[in-house]
Amino acid sequence: MKTPFQNFTGIAATMPAANINTDAIIPASFLRTAHADMGKGLFGLLRYDDEGKERPDFVLNREPFRRASILFAGENFGCGSSREAAAWALKQFGFKCVFAPSFADIFYENAFRNGVLAAVVAPEDLEALTALPPEGNVQPFFEVDLSAGTIARMDGTVVAFRIAASRRDALIRGDDEIDMTLKHADDIAAFHAEGLIARPWLHAPLTQKERS
Amino acid sequence: MKTLDDGRDLLFVDRHVLQETTSAPAFEGLRRRGLRVRHPELTIATQDHIVSTEPGRTETTNPQGRELMTLMRRNSADNSIRHFGVEDPRQGIVHVIAPELGVALPGSVLACGDSHTSTAGGLGALGIGVGTSEVEHVLATQTLALARPRAMRIDFQGKLPQGVTAKDVILHAIGLFGIAAGQGHAIEYAGEAIRVLPVEARLTICNMSIEIGARLGLIAPDEATFAYLQGREFLPEQAVLDRAMASWRMLASDAGAGFDKELTVDCSKIAPQVTWGTTQEDVVGIDRPVPDVGAFTDAAQRDRATEAMRYMDVVPGKPLEGLPVDIAFIGSCTNARLSDLEAAAVVIEGRKVAAHVRAMVVPGSMSVKRAAEAKGLDKIFRAAGFEWRDAGCSMCVSINQDVVGPGKRCIATTNRNFENRQGPRSRTHLASPAMVAAAAVAGAITDVRKMIAS
Ligand code: SF4
Questions:
Q1: Closest to A201 (Cβ–Cβ): which among B105, B180, B183?
Q2: A23 and B418: CB-CB below 8 Å?
C-alpha cells in the first residue's frame, strides 16, 4: 500500500518551457550519494548560482512558490535520463502533481510509481489556467480533484486533465505495483518453468564459457 | 506473458542489468518488503557511472563515488548476482557489456535502470530503460508491466556518403523529426542504409532512441547479428544456441507489420553532423551554418533557440567550423566500441592533438580497451596526445571526477548536449568519433572529410 492520493488545494508554479529534461530537474552533481537531499537539489543548477546562492529570478525561489505543490509545465516534460530522482526531487520539494501537454515515457512511469500525479492538459487549457484573471490579484491557488479529473482556479476557471482510468484508480487506492504483480506469482513461475524447456537460451541461468 | 486487467502487458524480463547509481534504493525497498531477488541467475551488475576512469583505478580512486560502488558490490554479493566491478576484466558501461558478453540476445526482454537500454535493440533485443522503482519491480518479480507502445518505423534509404557514420545518421534523423517524435512509441529502424550497417553501428543507432523520445528502439536481427554473437561469453551451449538461431530467423521475417507512424530519411545527402544547441534536435551538417533565429517561426521555439545559442556561445547564421574546442571526448555507450575507436584512430594516426586541447579516450568496456590495445590503437592515441583511460561513463554524465569545466567547450561522441550535462556550465557539441578526432587535431570543430581526403 502507498499513501492514497487525496484531492487538495495548493499553490501552482509555472515553468512553461518545453522539453525540461531530468538532468535539469535533478542534476547529476546532486546524485553522488545514496541519500542525497533531493528536495534541495530540485532544479539545482537553475535554482542556485555557482556559489550555491539562490537565484532570485527563479520561480521556486519566490513567494509564494516556495510552497508550490502543483507544477504547470511545457511539452515533453521529464525527457532524457531515466533517473527516478527527478520524481523524488519533485516529491520531496512538495510537488504532488505535474500538469503538462505531454510527458516523456520513463518520467511518466516514475512519477506514478511515487504517487505523483502526472496528467495531460491541453496547451490552451494550461494557458487559460496560468493566464492571470482580469483583476490580477488572485493568489495562485488551485484545487485538484483526481476522481473528477479537474483542476479549478479559485476564480471559477475549471479545466479537465487526462489520465488513464486504471492509473487514476490505482493512485486513489494507493495500489503498490509490486504487490499487484505478486498476485500473478504463480503465472510468472509457470511461464519461467515452461520457458526453461521451450526457450532455454532465455530462461536458463546465465553461465559463462571458459575464457580463452 | 499475459495482459493485465488495465490493458498493460506483463512482460517476463529475460535479462536484468544493474548499474550502481540507480539500484541502491531498489535493493533497500526489496529488503523492506522482506523479498529476495527473484532470478539472480538472469541478472548481472556492473559499476560504470561513478567509477574513476584513471588508468589502474580502484573502487577508492573516486572517493565521492565509493558509497554507491560499495553498495552495488555488497547488494550483488548478498543476492548472488554476478558483479563486474572496477577490477573485473569484463567491467564496462552497461549498454556496452550487455551485447559484448552475449547477455543481450535477439528477442530477449532486457531491462536496465538506464534510459539507453534500447541500445540492445541493435541486436533485436527489446531493451527497456526503467526507473529505480521498476528496477525493484524486476528484482522482486522478474517482470515489468508495460503499456503497449505505438509502432513507428523509420526507413533509412540510400547509401551513406564517405565520412558519414551511424552517429551522423541518427543525429540527422533527430534533427528532422525532433526530440519528442518517438514519445509513446517503439521505433523500428529499417531500410537499406540500416541493413548494411555493422552490428556495433546498429547499437549506436538504437542507443539514441531515447533522444528521439522513444523508450524502445530496435533493428530486426539478421545474419550479421548472428555472426556478431558467435563466441560471446554468456551464450548458451551450442545445441541450445542452434535452437535459438532457428527461432531468431523467424523473428526477422515478421514483415508486413502495420505501423502507426512511418518516416523516411534519405541518407545519401547526409553530411557529418554536429549539434549547435542544447537539445539533440539542434543539429546541422558541418557544411551548413547554425540556423538564423529568424528561421524559427514559432515564438517559443525562437526564444528557446536564442537561449541555447547564448548558452553555447555560437553565432546564428555562422558555421560551426573553426569554433575552437577545449576538450575532445571519445567515450560513452553511444560511441566507445572498438569500431568507434578505430574510426577515430584512422583520423589521428600520424597527427598531433592541438596544444590547447585536452583529448581523451574512455573505452566503453575493459574488453574494448584490451581489443584496441591488441590492435595498437592505444599507441596511436597516446602518440597523438590523447589520454588513454579505463572504462566507464566518464564525461558523458560527469557524475564521477571527469568534468568539462564552466564555460568550456567540448566536442563529444556522447548522446546528450543538455545544459550542465558535462558539469556546471559545460558546452557540449555531439558528433561522431571521426569528427571528434578531427576536432582534437585541428583544435576546432572541423569537417573530417577534408582530413581523410588529404
Ligand atoms: S555512457 Fe552516458 S548515456 Fe551511456 S549509460 Fe553511461 S551515462 Fe548513460
A1: B105
A2: yes
